[in-house]
TrEMBL record:
UniProt keywords, alphabetically: Membrane, Transmembrane, Transmembrane helix
Compartment list: Membrane
InterPro entries: TM_pro_TauE-like, TSUP/Inactive_protease-like
Domain of life (superkingdom): Eukaryota
The protein, known as: Membrane transporter protein
One family name in Pfam for this protein: TauE
Organism: Tetraparma gracilis
Length: 332
């Protein structure tokens, strides 16, 4: 998932209107919710994750699965925790998508090529998520591996703006007439030229499918495999690459979250609104929307260097991985 140093700060309060019909008892839940601390937590998580280009679900799920039990809190099931993390992530990155779309930095044709792979694999992953959640040890092993992988991703391969600029400087578009070169002009009149995704690329398709599957199961993966393909494989400059990647991630995560909540509703015999933990998401969703605006502000002001952000996030993910390993070792 892209670094949002290029994300234009654009308030998006109307996103809240897309929530399902709220239960009539929500005001009481909000006032009496033990999850009030999740508002500042969500702001911090969203700001940090979006600055380093990682989906917020990467940290929200561990918070729900590891931290909540230590605080005497719990969600109905591990499946509910993962689905809630995905739902929160959707709103956080939708804030960014609105900004990118308004500025003409999304190539929807290219996004559609990736979505043709990520949507069905995310749907499969979301259907498998419930089965995985039924085996707590297996779920912890999966998260430990994911957190460690994200830590290594940030250290060695994350295409932040500086690295993307270096890659772009070395990436030359072929001049042969037979080569198709796509172009995009943003709302400011800036023109970008790049190659379309390769057709018949088995390695790229497999990586995209795996990213979609991981997003469906654990909430993270699609952006981490798509953005490098756009920047390196398509020679796409970072602004449209970030916007196009965000579009794919948002729609993929939304699909996964919807399927997971539908599965939860089916298993409980109730409606979707009945399985959404409103007392939690009424704090996490506003938090990630705020974080989505703070991230580009922090980046544009240069308050924290990209290198320090990535070092901090890499250490954080490594620590979370260690926490899961300890949980696996001690059991319970």
């Amino acid at each position: 998932m892209p670094s949002l140093a290029t994300l234009p700060p654009l308030a998006t309060p109307h996103l809240l209107a897309s929530l399902p019909s709220l239960p009539p008892y929500l005001p009481s839940l909000v006032l009496n919710s033990p999850y009030k601390f999740m508002l500042p937590t969500a702001i911090a998580v969203s700001t940090c994750c979006q600055l380093c280009g990682i989906g917020g679900a990467a940290l929200f799920s561990p918070i729900f699965l590891l931290l909540f039990p230590l605080l005497g809190l719990s969600l109905p099931s591990p499946s509910a925790a993962i689905a809630s993390a995905l739902l929160t992530e959707v709103f956080g990155f939708s804030s960014g998508l609105v900004g990118f779309t308004a500025r003409g930095l999304v190539d929807w044709r290219v996004a559609g090529q990736f979505l043709a792979v990520t949507l069905p694999t995310a749907l499969v992953g979301a259907r498998l998520a419930g089965s995985l959640a039924a085996f707590p040890t297996l779920l912890r092993v999966a998260y430990a591996a994911l957190m460690l992988s994200l830590s290594l991703f940030l250290i060695f391969t994350s295409p932040n703006p500086e690295r993307a600029a270096e890659i772009a400087a070395q990436c030359e578009l072929p001049l042969e007439e037979s080569t198709t070169v796509r172009s995009l002009v943003d709302s400011q009149g800036n023109a970008y030229a790049y190659l379309p995704p390769k057709t018949g690329d088995a390695v790229g398709t497999a990586a995209t499918a795996f990213g979609g599957l991981l997003t469906g199961i654990l909430g993270v993966g699609a952006g981490e495999v798509i953005l490098p393909q756009l920047v390196k494989g398509c020679c796409m400059p970072l602004p449209p690459a970030a916007g196009t990647s965000v579009a794919v991630v948002v729609l993929t995560a939304f699909t996964a979250a919807t399927v997971q909540f539908l599965e939860l509703a089916k298993n409980t015999g109730g409606g979707v609104t009945g399985v959404i933990p409103w007392e939690l998401v009424c704090y996490t969703i506003p938090g990630v929307l705020i974080g989505g605006q703070l991230a580009p502000l922090v980046a544009s002001r240069g308050l924290v260097s990209d290198e320090n952000i990535e070092k901090f996030a890499a250490g954080l993910f490594a620590s979370v991985s260690l926490a899961f390993i300890v949980k696996i070792a001690v059991g319970g």
